[in-house]
Amino acid sequence: MTAPYFAEVAALMGDPARANILAALMDGRAQTAKELAFVAGVSAPTTSGHLAKLVAGHLLAVEVQGRHRYYRLADPLVAAALEGVMALAAHGPRRHRPHAPGDAELRHARTCYDHLAGEVGVDLLSGLLGRGHLAPGPRDYRVTSAGAALLAEIGVDLAQAARQRRGFARPCLDWSERRPHLAGALGAALTARFFEKGYLARRRDTRAVTITPAGRRMFRERFGIDA
Amino acid sequence: MTAPYFAEVAALMGDPARANILAALMDGRAQTAKELAFVAGVSAPTTSGHLAKLVAGHLLAVEVQGRHRYYRLADPLVAAALEGVMALAAHGPRRHRPHAPGDAELRHARTCYDHLAGEVGVDLLSGLLGRGHLAPGPRDYRVTSAGAALLAEIGVDLAQAARQRRGFARPCLDWSERRPHLAGALGAALTARFFEKGYLARRRDTRAVTITPAGRRMFRERFGIDA
DNA sequence: ACGAGACTTCGGCCGCCGCCGAACCGATCG
DNA sequence: CGATCGGTTCGGCGGCGGCCGAAGTCTCGT
To answer: What total of structural domains would you count in chain A?
Structure first.
């Protein structure tokens, strides 16, 4: 009856070019219109139109810097909604897609907006819980004293993460593993630290991340997981 | 580049008529093609086409019963994905929509697929947690011995709920409250019991549910919440 | 066996929207 | 200042897809 509301949002996600753009921005980094035109596979004018629509629909935010315009996801909620739809798409009996190249890497380790996802991300969260560094709470996970010590060693500023306006330590359903990984301010801070210390390395044009040898060692020693 | 996958799913959700259909099925009940044609606001042939697409896309499942065809959501994951998109739509700076009639009722108490959502659903979960009937766990909530006693009094068969293939007791982000309510087999079993015992009553043509006087009393006594 | 009802298939219409090339605006750099 | 580059706006084209009415299939009731 009353035109359901979410249809507009879903329609925005439903165009192939726009979906490519959104997928490219799922790693939380901002990108210029030109870069996005490339990933979208359409011309610059067409891309511009799509971007305008996505901004109008509050899926993207734009930041002007000189003659560049950087687009990024407007809100972690957008990433969450996209992951939900992806989970659905991934789950549906495989549509004629043996698996795309790079798919294995993506399933193994990738960024989800600004935190770590994929097999490694899921293992990380269950490792933290299993070793008693994190304890489940009613809404957010709670950092135990053992966990606080561990995170301090790694150099994560817990106080700052707790101050953020976003949720502190939330589960986020992983579309490939169908089990949660660690999201929220803590997930983001931890992941950022992994990049800073060279445990993880971004790759060009993909959300998949490389785990460096140092990272592999660290994951085993600190969290007891085989990355 | 590689056509992103989830675009097809999002596009299925993005048509107004189909969105109406999906929204109508969000309460977990199955409905006939004719009923759905009505809620979709389009003719029977058009509806038939939409339904076929939704089934092909694995968003809906169909069950033939005599000369009727009952359509329902194919999987709880579909409901979860839809809630995610709804959360996004509800959150985006209110689009020229002061609030639709019935909106208040919907926010207060409604079914989300097959479990209770809205203000009451969220309060129910936090009540269960606060009173120590449910304890957070790594994936599912755990029923404490006190909780098991309470649920037995109400007549919920815990063993049967635990046997189900779906998750046992999961949080589900509530789009109107933006806090989790209780989903999974336990959420469904509890909600079903509420309907059986006449604590809740369904209404026609809406996911909003009525809380009966007996239900109001029960919610206060058993769970300490003002419904 | 017949008619009614539920649902789908078919055929054709129409409008929306995605697409591009060309032109336009503004910032940067020589 | 002109040249270049990033980005958007404009105008026009083309096709996908949603829509309906009519006709077809199947099931049930009687």
So the answer is: 2
